[in-house]
């Protein structure tokens, strides 16, 4: 089976395997563009929905039921169904009110709407996706959440053009302060949510998708200002899609990996895999194995643009 | 072309050199009717007047927002920066339909901007609110104006706007879009 290939990277193989077998609980994030966590909890209380507040991010609620979509607070756009660990990269990106922020692989919008809320729905948030069907889901999710600082574009993120943002008489292409590059991936880490996630797995697919990931991350670095922050994330365990992508982009673009703290238990990025050695600084990336915090699997790195 | 609400909230007198709407890009609304360059496009001032006069939404609710038209009569409210004529898929949120007799707010705009509405707000009890979000039309006593109303109900101990209803002949017709309708648990 696919997951066996990661045994050398995991500290507790049995716990890892057991966690991958368990289904994930239903988690929602309170959308603070439209309400407060207290009001959203009061609305769930009034409707008789049980929940636990997660201690690492106060906006996250773990629900007893699995149908948040038919509750009053959901209809009001106060809740967004989002896997717990996928709330991590926006936290690492840490966008500030008034900034210009890029989300190049945005649909269906859980991380986009989280970024908008962190920006207090101010500044400019560019959400791109290459798939029109998924963009339509992104648009309706963003509108339900009341997000108004959003520009939605339909481009290939590998050669994202800033031309739409350039006024006719100008050639200024305003760079971004931050980017959250949550790339399409082989999704191995979502096996708890979607047991079929590994059915189409192949090394050839990994290599093909890693090429796309490298190009998307490079373009995001190129469109971010000097000193700006780029966060790279996937929901997969494969070093080919994680540390190897970072290693490549570190060599090609003026960017470095920076240290960061997160309120979850993590393991450092791996510097060797299948006979390949990566830049030592990829250790600064963080791996979230499913058994560490009882979540899905995740990978997250924080980069700073140096020129 | 202009329509009843356009005449009520704006100055519909046609200027000399008005051009046609370019419906495939986002074009910014003129600040006032005197700044109009595109036929039938209401001014920002008229749109703010509409929300304030019809629903009592405080004018400052829209401070910091620019208004744009893309498509025919689809208006968008946007909080960020963008050049006029930008060719993208979405800019902020769709918040008002114009270029029709009666201007119609969207469900999501009412939820986002009409929390402080005081006029033409019909407040439903829980049972009525469930029927409304399921998309049902219902008979209702209402002494106020006919036409598009803000619909609200109590949630977590306070009134909140849910969406838009069309009130005609003793009946409140739900305007909740099909994809947004829910049978609340």
TrEMBL record, chain A:
InterPro entries for this protein: MeTrfase_RsmB-F_NOP2_cat (IPR049560), MeTrfase_RsmB-F_NOP2_dom (IPR001678), Nop2p (IPR011023), RCMT (IPR023267), SAM-dependent_MTases_sf (IPR029063)
GO terms (BP aspect): tRNA methylation
Pfam families according to UniProt: Methyltr_RsmB-F (PF01189)
Residues annotated as catalytic: 235
Taxonomy, superkingdom: Archaea
GO MF assignments: RNA binding; tRNA (cytidine-5-)-methyltransferase activity
The keyword Iron is assigned to this record: no
Entry binding sites for S-adenosyl-L-methionine: 105-111, 129, 156, 182
Record keywords, A-Z: Methyltransferase, RNA-binding, S-adenosyl-L-methionine, Transferase
Ranges for domain SAM-dependent MTase RsmB/NOP-type: 16-306
Entry-linked NCBIfam families: nop2p
Similarity section: Belongs to the class I-like SAM-binding methyltransferase superfamily. RsmB/NOP family.
The protein, known as: NOL1/NOP2/sun family putative RNA methylase
Species this chain originates from: Halomarina oriensis
Lineage: Archaea, Methanobacteriati, Methanobacteriota, Stenosarchaea group, Halobacteria
TrEMBL record, chain B:
Region: Disordered, residue numbers: 1-40
InterPro entries: DUF7122, Nol1_Nop2_Fmu_2
Top-level taxon of the source organism: Archaea
Domain rRNA small subunit methyltransferase F RNA-binding PUA-like: 129-182
Every DUF7122 domain range: 17-92
Pfam family, one: DUF7122
Compositionally biased intervals (Basic and acidic residues): 16-34
Listed name of the protein: Uncharacterized protein
The organism's taxonomic lineage, starting at the top: Archaea, Methanobacteriati, Methanobacteriota, Stenosarchaea group, Halobacteria
